[in-house]
Design brief:
Order of helices and strands: EEEEEEEHEHEHEHEHEHEHEEEEHHHEEE
CATH topology of the largest domain: TIM Barrel
Mean pLDDT: 95
Structural class: alpha/beta
Radius of gyration: 21 Å
Bound molecules: zinc ion
Largest sheet: 8 strands, parallel
Strand order of the largest sheet: 5-8-9-10-11-12-13-14
Amino acid sequence: MHLPKQYYLQAKQVFSENDILADHYVLIENGVISSIDESMKRTLPVISFDQYKLLPGFLDLHIHGREGCDIMDATRESIETISSSLAKHGVVGFLGTTVTSTWENTLAAFATIGEAYHNQPSGAQVLGAYNEGLFFTEDHKGAHDEKYFLPLSKANIDAIIGASQGALKVVALAPELPGSEDIIKYLTAKGIKAMLGHTNANYQQTCDALHSGACGGVHVFNGMKGIHHRDPGCAGAVLLNKDAYVEVIADGVHLHPAILQLIYRMKGANKMGLISDCIVAGGMKDGTYKLGMLDVNVLDGVARTESGSLAGSTLTLEKAVVNLIKLADIPPLEAVHMASLIPAEFLGVSNTLGSISIGKRACLTLVDDNFNVQATFIDGQLSYVNQAVRELFTPRFDNNN
Ligand SMILES: [Zn+2]
């Protein structure tokens, strides 16, 4: 379905950058938001959603796979499947995230993400690559097979940068590894973010890494030392550091609701970003799947390795938003922005993405009262539409205004 070059979207609620606006009209011109108003010009067509909420499209900056496909498949087909599956869940952009595997497979995965970054798939856009894997320590390895861990060297980092063809945006690493300080500075100088995770680092080691330029914590509390009163650990350090960003898996399993609330109180609304950490089993039945080199058992949607360690999730961001609102009492606009504006700011793309505001790309998601995704727009065109709302997409001319 093709939408006009100029049209209004009207919704019961518009989640704009500063407020939730009732019954507003968002004018979209050539894929860009050009006004947000209580009224509209009669000369332009309008598409109305009196029963729905219009949100900024979600950005999932840490996602491994969906619907039987994995970034580590290193194929265009898998990127396409993940991209269109994410669009069904309101996601407009994502970072293709790797997991520890052979060096050969890792480089092939980065090459495939790099190609998709320059030649976008049809659903959610590839905003870049996220290296999660290889540079960790064993104590909190999660679903990363330590057999394939590599030294944190410039040569290894350079090979990944080269394979990804400019797409590499984030490198996760354990700061207690030798040479981490130099590598964090090296990455930072290249505009690539170092994030701390799958680590046994103590409080001081984490503070030192943040001081060297690391940006924050990979799925905070998961895959790192928690807070002990004599060792506040990596979790304590990234929560306490005002500038540190934390990724949060809000599936109700990875983090207790009280911990979601604690993170929110420590970080406020601006440094807490939702991720799905979704794996190949997302959108699939329970069963046994592969994550990188390891078998993962999925039961009631919860993925675990054979040793019982949590292994990614089957979460979607619209569910994560609902969980923040219901489990952690976070205001809806802030919860939505933790899946859109906050990750956009972290990635440095908030000038064009992340909120409903004038001049930004019309990358949007339409949800019902329970935040079930009904439609996803990328640059003002439909990337996904649910059958239930399809007929509402016929633009009309409104003569009542
Ligand atoms: Zn992880």
